[in-house]
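Co-fold these.
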Amino acid sequence: MKKMTYIQSLGAALFIGILMLPACTDKFEEMNKDPNNPVDVPAYTAFTAAIVNSVDHRLGGGWMNHTYFACWSQQWCKIQYIDEDHYLLRTENQNDFFQRPYNDYLMNLKLVIDKTKAGGPEENLGLNAAARVLRAWNFHILTDQFGDVPYSEALLGLENPDNVRPKYDTQESIYKDLIADLKQCNADLKSLQGVNFGKGDLIYDGEPEAWRRFANSLRLRLLNRAAGVVNVAAKPWDQAEAEITAMLADPDEYPMIESNEDNAKLEYPGELPYRNGTYNTLYTRTDQAISETMVNWLGDREDLRLTVYAQPTSADPTVYVGSQNGRGSQPTIPNISLLGIKIAYDPAAPLYILVAAETYFHKAEHYLRVGDLPNAKLNYERGIEVSFDQWDLTMAADYVDRPGVDWEAATTDEQRFQLIAEQNWAALFTQGCEAYAEVRRTGYPARIFQYELEATTYPGLGLPVRFAYPPNEESYNGANLQEARVRQNVEASNDGMFSTDGTRSQMWWHVKKNPIPTSTDPQTTFRQIPASSLH
Amino acid sequence: MKKLAMLLACFVLAGTQFLWAQGTVITGTVTGKEDGQPIPGVAVLVKGTTIGTITDFDGKYSLSVPQNAVSLVFSFVGMKTVEVPIEGKTTIDVAMESDVLGISEVVVTALGITKEKKSIGYAIQDVSGDEISRAGERNMVNALQGKVAGVFINNSSGSVASSSRIVIRGNNSLTRENQPLFVVDGVPISNTYNTTGGYGGIDYGNAAMDINPSDIESVTVLKGGNAAALYGQRGANGVIMITTKSGKSRKGLGVTFENSFAWDNVLILPDFQNEYGQGYYGEFEYFDGAGGGINDNVDESWGPKLDGRLIPQYDSPYDPVTGFRTPTPWVAHPDNIKSLFQTGTSRNTSLALEGSNEKANFRLSMTNNDAIGVVPNTDLKKNSFYLTGGYKLSEKLQVSATANYLRNNSANIPSGGYTSANILQQSSWHGRQVDYAGLKKMINVIDPVTGRPFNWNHSYHDNPWWTMYKNTNSRDRQRIIGNVNIQYFFTDWLNFQAQVGTDYFSEVRNERRAKGSNDWPDGQYNSWSRIFNETNASAMLTFNRNILTDLNLTATVGANIMHRDDRQQNTFIAQLIIPDLYATSNAVVPPTTWLSESHQEIQSVYGLINLNYKGWLSLEGTLRDDWASTLPVKKNPYSYPSFNAGFVFTDALGIQSNLFSYGKLRGGWAKVASPADPYSLTGVYTSSDPFEGNPVMNYTNTLPNINLDPETTVSKEVGAELKFFNNRVGFDVTLFQKNTTNQILPISISSATGFTSKWINAGEMQNKGIELLVNLTPVKLRKFTWDVDINYTRIKNEVLSLAPDMSFFALGGAWSIQIQARPGEPYGSMFYRTIARENYTADTQKGVVLTNSGRPLVSPFTGNYVRTSYNTVIGNITPDWLGSLRNSFMVDKFNLSVLIDVRKGGDLFSVTNFFGEYAGTLASTVGKNPKGNDIRTPVDEGGGYLVKGVLGRIKPDGTVEYLDANGNHSDVPIENTEVYIEAQDYFEGIWGYQGGRSIFDGSYVKLREVTAGYTFDQPFLQKIGIRNLNLSLVGRNLAILHKNVPNIDPENAFDAGNVQGLESNMLPSVRTISVNLKVVF
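Predicted complex below.
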């Protein structure tokens, strides 16, 4: 039967085919394990990553400080490609400022916190509390830029991979939760009784007491922001003042950053790849300089800090000249002052996360609000002195008596508030994110609200009251974002960055109605501040 | 074309051994029955012997036949074999009848299975090796351009080693590989390429460019899923099957020598203005090039008029006493950018030895290609050593093996994109007075003021000659492609074949940045290396026999294991101690290194059944099961089938007509599945450099997914092949549709989850299209033939869906312009703000533009255009259709062919235009305003730019309000005739406002290829042992006959990646003229 042969052959063929069926797929799982990267690491290594990345992003090489908020708060300014200093945003930056905190350092901190919590696989209460303090610092900066942001449902990708659209929490609830958690951090760190919690801490080398001071000073910052401002009846959070009072009443329970040795900062080795991020940015191109607002403010007070914050002009080394923010054309570089060596041209310069001077100014503001003028003055003057000390300068004895500084010359609370707010703004030099929040909240320095930028992208609107939400969030989490926008009364026009009536679109803690400038800075001459006048 | 094939066949068959015997001499002429034309190359054989000859170019033959000879057999490819009894005749003339075209046309299909073309149920197209090598392209992918329907090829730039992207029937996958699989002699090879991202970088070329064109016998393009079903996932995008030459077709020993010289010249440079030099608002004075003078840091041309006035310049004489430069005349250097280029040259030399006898065949070839780029100090050297051989161990057992060693190295490949390492970044950003030619001799001169290397600018740029000679990017790839094949014939209808093939390469890239460079003041060195190996082992059993008288059954079962290992290593040195030494010993801080490995395997079994009835009906089905190491265990295996059918209705219905010579219908359906990439299933930490000894570990940004399914592409096609008038008019038309579903996407998610993306299966993309091939022979005379070949492809690509609620998927972008996949639109929507128009409306709640038409809106406050309040779709990168037209002429031994190709549609974003206008360097930034004054004259002196449009603004509610020149409300639209703006403010204002202005339609018509050749085969040549000699002149990329984008070639792209449609100061494409000589001994 010839035909059988065909069928037999086919059968044979199929049989061989079956024999060849792969039988060795059991090694597949092993083969698909990433040979290059660990699935788990000790918690402290992720903590280190969170410190390095967040400090650089917030204060150093990330554009947040040098291109946006140090400029918007008129500490610094852009002198080439001035676009962002005209309030023109780059989409990449909008996305980056929102995204990176979450997917980079806040996610790392979350993993650290989960691992090190009581009962966690790497239980370490000190590291746990330190990570929560750093988390609070990062979350408050995030919400100070964007207002409502995802918080309670944030960072849950691993636990709940199906919820890729975390809802937005109110800024108020985020602040209150951070304030409460910082209190708990203080208690947790106290329980360690000074026992070092281990490796990976680039800020305080694992010292719990140092982290306590950072936690409490940071808590004071948040409470002060929540407590409102003088001469404005509306308080963001009524209880905030009482919380501050309680903290200040018990310095043993709530130690704070009181000297520059206690400052939260990141010291850089100064060699690649870890150099001060501002240095890295200005190393190859001179796009930033000191703002004229800052130069003139310091010059008015013959303030020696100008010699650290800026360099004399290269055309005339005996004078300092600022360049005004948001100009329509670029200045001639030799005729203006660049940023100071210690600020921008030293690869090993530290980046400051929270400094002692600020704590004193917050205390001063609190005492002013509660009517305790002697303590307000005491802390105000101490804050200035500490700020000079931060830059290895000694405050001249007569400094506190100079016009524009003299506490006694101020006759109203508003004037006293201006003194504190402006000194805090000057002391926050290099901390653009923080300065921008304080400028919005306090309405000082006055000059920012007096003149419109010459070449602003949004004429007639003054200073942005918020950073614009990122397009990516609009795309990937649109409904929740829209709900948050409506809830915050964010204006639809002008990218939602401005408040045309002085109240809409503003931050929860921004209860003051700041003036919208009606005229542009005349800028007839560049004012020269003689170096010899500073003392 | 046919004539050309005949010529070729003639060369091949001419090698037949002649056995002379005593007897009578028979002469005659062989002609075609249809046209009466002589047919050269016809084999004439004495029946039952090996005695024979072939006809010459005039169809004549002369053969000495033995006394006992009975008859002569005349055979020729494409003709019906004729047997004529001798019967004592001494002259035998034969008229051969053409076989229905296609019947004996044999093509190589998937897995190397050869088939008659007429029995195939899907579209397949061949390009001969001769056509590939004749094009003289260093990158064989380019040589396919305009020659295959349904195929889209884009050469990224005029860099000497640039990559080429090839896509068949449109993009399937949103994010994954869309280029076809390359297979050489049955062995899949890597066509890896680097993607440089939206801001560009160094394009190191695509790996298929290693293949030596002169070793290619033919290239078969398998277009649809059917053709590729047997290659599994990687065949989903089609297959480029390369068959290399073997010695089989040549009896005895043959020698072929080829040599060609080519000259490359820049095809297009931007159109620059020559009226204004460097500076801002008409002011400039050089001191240190970094802001020390007046606007001397500025790298833009908004400065003083180039009227010969005296201004201190970078190249003015330096006075060491005063420390200043003595002013010199301020004049334009119109050809300054042009002076950065030279004529590139390329020399290709190839020598091949080949031969065969009854038992064995071999071919050995050596090719050397040495090219110098149009950018000085850039080069490409390619060397190939190729050996293939086969041996018949017995009637049942055959073995063959191929080894190809390839070396592809460049001492310097130019950087592209938006970086100071790209010399062309300065085509946008420079002063029109800069004398680049003069800077050449200043490379090693130190500037007395800055102490830095001499240059016209010290803020952003290096001397371009410094960049060319000091900031180099080298690449060296050494590669071995080979296979070993055993075939055993159990019987004449059952055979077994096993093959092991491998593609192994090692590659080193070194990127050097010299100490003293503007962006790398301390120097930098990056050394990257890679070892890649993919091995495929397969075994296949094939049954092939008539099971009924007219019914043939072919059945194949087989198995394949694909294993891939990839290892990459990088050493990075951020600062050098002493200049020009690029070594780890010369690092200021410890070098940073990383090492990355990847391993994957796919195991498969497959089967194929084909039934063929009487040669005119063919039905085929395939089934393949894959087990992929990259998928979750429980998702393995996954299987996918395909079916196709071919029906030659002219044969079935017995139509035998010269008018309607051939008609075939075909159709197919196929599914192909493709698994995830390695390591997509679990999350990991990645490390950064330790911070003072502290490890720095970051968690991944991509949320892993342990439930990934394979991505699947279902393709359908129907086609018809029709030939008329004795095959002088032929149509081949295919309608196809491909849908790729379950796409494996790292979808972007709200980063508030802690991750920026998540692996999911979602989304569907569809390609529907038509491919049309038309072959015409309008004239066919004895010594003159005119052939016309037309390829046309229209593809309608549409992103049908993404993940639920997902409005777009971002593919990439640059300068705020995003390239996206958006449901309802073709792949690659360009998304950005644009100029708002009078009928603008927006939904401010949803943040979307609803309408935008009418005249542009101009702001009475700024004098510039008003931009839309939201991003909106302003372009798309996918072309509408592609076409090519080739006219070939043969006049006796002379041939001429002219290829024109066309792309319609497909937008691109041109950074050359974007920043060239910002920086005032382009010709479009000068001119007169409606008042007749120079636009660059200040507004208060009657100059300025009048932005044309209607005065108005966008209200917060997203609607338009007309305004008057004072900014007050107007009930009627008022055309702007009063509000002038400084030219610099206008052009700089475009940036960040109207990126849409730099988006252009990428359509073009190109004179792609002209070849002219002459074959010498005169008797005197043959007497000195030269069988024939061919001399040809080839021009490639000769002219852009039409385009809509100014200043650049619309084909320019960063690299061969998915994100096309972005151009950023790319090296201009080149025009190539080459002279080729081919001698066959």
